[in-house]
Amino acid sequence: MKKYLIFLLLFMHAALLQAQNKYAGVIWAKGILQWQDYQETESIPGGHALARTYMKLQSDIPDSVVVTARGNEVRIEIYALMIPAFSYVKKGYTNKGVLAHEQMHFDIEELFARQLRKAIAEDTFTLKTYKKEIRKIEKKIWHDLQKMQDDYDATHRSSDKGHNWWVRTINESLDKLEAYKNQRMVILVL
């Protein structure tokens, strides 16, 4: 019986570690994506995409505050995250053009992470409802993010709003929000 319990505990620990690694991701940086980050797959069901980068706007907002001389502080982390376990590229399409397209999606994700940080930094929050208030801002940002991702896919090959236009526009926007590039932020709640 004792051996069975030890085996069960070891198995559960290994399963937990595997689950954590499955969702491990690549945090955004300029030009960081590499084909090695993608899950190799021979056939991808349901879709015509040559590659798919699974990304998320990750925000870690604690339930508790830290009381300091300045007041009640909440330490938040917000970042654009690419999850390799759910990202793929079809065989034969690991070229610079496709990778640049996927990097642009990741750059757009970071742009909205910065917009979220800015919106949070410019707002005021109450102790009782700060998390709910932040999630409300996050929901609006996420909607705008999805719209821009769709717009990029729809227009990146057009003559007037092509890939180079998007690169220029997103890079300029990232530069304008340079003050919000830090993934960690501290806000005061009243």
Features:
190 residues, alpha+beta, five-stranded antiparallel sheet, elongated, disordered N terminus
Short description:
This protein is of the alpha+beta class and 190 residues long. It has helices at 2-22, 96-122, 130-155, 163-176, and strands at 26-27, 39-41, 51-52, 55-60, 66-68, 71-82, 88-90, 184-189.
Describe what you observe in this structure:
This protein has 190 residues and is an alpha+beta fold. It has one domain (24-181). 46% of the residues lie in helices and 19% in strands. The chain is built from four helices and eight strands. Strands 1, 4, 5, 6 and 8 form a five-stranded antiparallel β-sheet that branches. The chain has a three-stranded mixed β-sheet with strand order 2-7-3, covered by helices on one side. A hairpin with a 2-residue loop joins strand 5 (66-68) and strand 6 (71-82). The longest helix is centred in the middle third of the chain and has 27 residues, at 96-122. The chain starts with a helix and ends with a strand. Mean pLDDT is 86; it is low at 2-22.
- Number of E-state strands: 8
The number of domains is 1
| Rg, Cα atoms, Å | 20 Å
Strand content: 15-25%
Output the number of helix runs: 4
SSE layout:
Elements lengths: L1 H21 L3 E2 L11 E3 L9 E2 L2 E6 L5 E3 L2 E12 L5 E3 L5 H27 L7 H26 L7 H14 L7 E6 L1
Parallel strand pairs: 2-7
Antiparallel strand pairs: 1-6, 3-7, 4-6, 5-6, 6-8
Helix pairs in contact: 2-3, 2-4
